[in-house]
Predict the structure.
Amino acid sequence: MTSGDGSGREPILRVATSLFAALGYDSTTTSQIAEAAGLSVEALTEEFGGKRELYLEIMERTYRAERASLEEVLTGASTATPEQTALLIHRIADHYLDFCLAHPEFPSLWMHRALSDASDLTELERRYIRPQVSYVQSVITPTVEARHLGPDVDLEYVFWSMVWSVHGFCQGGVLDENGDRQGPEDPDALRRFRIHLHRMIHRAAALPGSPP
C-alpha cells in the first residue's frame, strides 16, 4: 500500500497516535496498529518502515503542531511593562491548557515517556521538549532581566509546574467527595482548574496585580 500524495497516511497516523497515546509505545504492537487501520502488517511496514518510524513521525507531528500554536501566542507579544509580561504569561498558560484539551494525545504521549516508555528512543526530549522551553524562555528572559518579575523567581520551574499540572489534570482529573474522577470533560472541574492554574502561576512568578 503506497499512498503517493500521502493522503492515505493520515487515517493510519490518527489510528497509531490513538494507540500510542492510550497504551504507550512499548505496549503497542505493529499488528495492533495494522489491524486498527484495516491493513496488513506488510502494507503498514511498506508505508512507514515499522513501529519505530511511525512513532517518530507522530512525535514530530505533535511537536510541530504545538510549536505552531505556541508561536501564535508569542510572536510579536509585548513584554515592555510588568503588566504586559503578566498578561503574556497567563496567555501562555491558557494556550497550553487549551492545546492539551484540543489534542489529548499530546499530554498522554509525553506522560508515557515520563514513565520510561520508549526508553530506547533517547533523543526525543532534547529534540522536541527542550526547544519549546528555550523558545518560551527567550521571550520571557528579557523581562526577568528588566526585573518585571520577583527577584527570586525560577521561571523555568514556573513553566514546568504549569506543564505538570496541565498534564495531570488532563490525564487524571481530580477526585470529588465520592472518590470519582472529575476531568476536563466536566465543565465545572475545568473551570476550577483553570482558575487554580492562573492563581498558581501568578503567585509562583510573583506577577503584579491579581490573577485573571
